[in-house]
Amino acid sequence: MAEGTGQERTTGAAAAISLLRTNRDFRRLFIASVISLGGDWFLFVALGGLVLQVTGDALSVGILIVSQELPIFIATPWAGWLTDRFDRRRLMILCDVARTAICVAFLAVGPANLWLAYALLAGLSVFTAVFDPASTAAIPNLVDPSELPTANALGGSLWGTMLAVGAALGGIVSTVFGRDTAFLVDAASFALSALMLAGIHRRFSEDRDEPRVGIREATAETVQYARRDHRVRALISVKAGFGLAAGVLALVAVFARQVFTAGDVGFGFLMASRGLGALTGPFIGHRLAGRDHARLLPVIAGALAVFGVGYILLGASPTLLVAGVAVFTAHLGGGAQWVLSTYGLQRIVPDRIRGRIFAFDFALITLSLAISSLVASAIADAIGPRPAVMIVGGVAFAWAAAWWVLTRDLRTTPIFEGCGEAPSEPMSPLTYVAD
Q1: Which of 154, 109, 111 minimizes the C-alpha distance to 18?
Q2: d(CA 169, CA 320)
Q3: Which helix (H) or strand (E) holds 211?
Q4: DSSP codes joined into one string, 23-80
Q5: Among the listed residues 6, 44, 183, the one whose alpha carbon sits nearest the alpha carbon of residue 104
């Protein structure tokens, strides 16, 4: 990737604004994600508040997260296969239409049938298992190679932005207008996302000349590819280890409602603090990684350590405001490690297998996140949320140190050596389709 003359442009606000202004197709994908993610956090705040209000147990929020994450892991083999075999844009539109219908069904959820919330959330996640890797795998095909760091940072900051905005508004809307409003907002967000995606003309994948294979063969090829390339294993494993600590999300609702007695508004505030950190972290991470991202691995390890320290500090926070600062700090690191590891995979992995690699990547983190959520919430019920969150933060810090040691051989040569200029060449206007 030709970053030598434009590295300063690739990590700043000016480059982000320029990319959104000049690249219509990426802009539509970005806006679609903005709309969809904002509704997602409306939904999560509403559901988290509901199950905690009905049950009073931290474990119930942990089970909610498992209902959201475990189906993604289970669906991975066919989700990755779909994203590399079929038109990614059409698949994403189909997923949005299905998720619109599921969100409307949340209107039937109440204290008497709380099980339905878990079931519907699991159904929602099955379609997310296809949508997310398809979107991430498509980005290198929608931007020029020199714009990929900017697009990658925007994607990571988008998640943080909409977490901040969606969670904060979700807490307020759920309190003032009721949780049914949050469910309807989420349904509308997916419908609008589908409309935005329908207007994108540039292709989401390269031409596929190789013979089509079944799910079993495609999965075997993915595993073999990851095993051969230590760089790919390292970039996937850092997220999986991050997931072992990210179950702390289950305790954010507990801190808001039980430790600081701030209800859904407090939950929204802490989630917004998390989002602001995730918004800022990607841009800082890309800049710290240096010219052609030569310091990519050290920055990832350091960012993961910051994530752990932030949640250790949350356990000692005396007030909701201080807790917000601790959560913000944690997700400066969390956001940076997430987007930088994703960026590395976008550059290294060829388009023909990129969807499967990202599906596998997401599957590992969802499995580790589901396990972490159950363990963290069970510890919180047993010994209290403050020591529980400090233990989970310590896990993240320990994994950062272990990952640093395990990847020492990769730091002796440039991580992108042999990758060429980019994972894929930019599409010319002649290859655009208007279907």
Answers
A1: 154
A2: 18
A3: none
A4: -HHHHHHHHHHHHHHHHHHHHHHHHHHHHHHHH--HHHHHHHHHHHHHHHHHHHHHHH
A5: 183
Residue 159: both structure tokens together? 């998640």
**CATH code for position 388:** 1.20.1250.20
236 assigned to some structural domain: yes
State the DSSP H helix or E strand holding residue 170, giving kind and residue range, or none if neither.
Answer: helix 148-176
pTM: 0.72
Place of tokens 């932005």: 161
**Concatenated DSSP letters of 306-318:** HHHHHHHHHHT--
229/235 Cα distance (integer angstroms):
10
Is 323 part of any domain? Answer: yes
CB 331 within 8 A of CB 281: yes
Find out whether 100 and 132 touch, Cβ atoms under 8 Å. no
Quote the tokens at residue 218. Answer: 């495609």
Q: Each residue of 284-338: pLDDT tens digit?
A: 888 898 877 888 999 999 999 999 999 999 999 999 999 999 999 998 998 899 8
> Residue 408: is it exposed, middle or buried by C-beta count within 10 angstroms (0-12/13-18/19+)?
exposed
Structural domain boundaries enclosing 135? 7-206+215-413
* Residue in 293, 283, 291, 300 with CA at minimum distance from that of residue 235: 300
Residue located via tokens 């079993």: 216
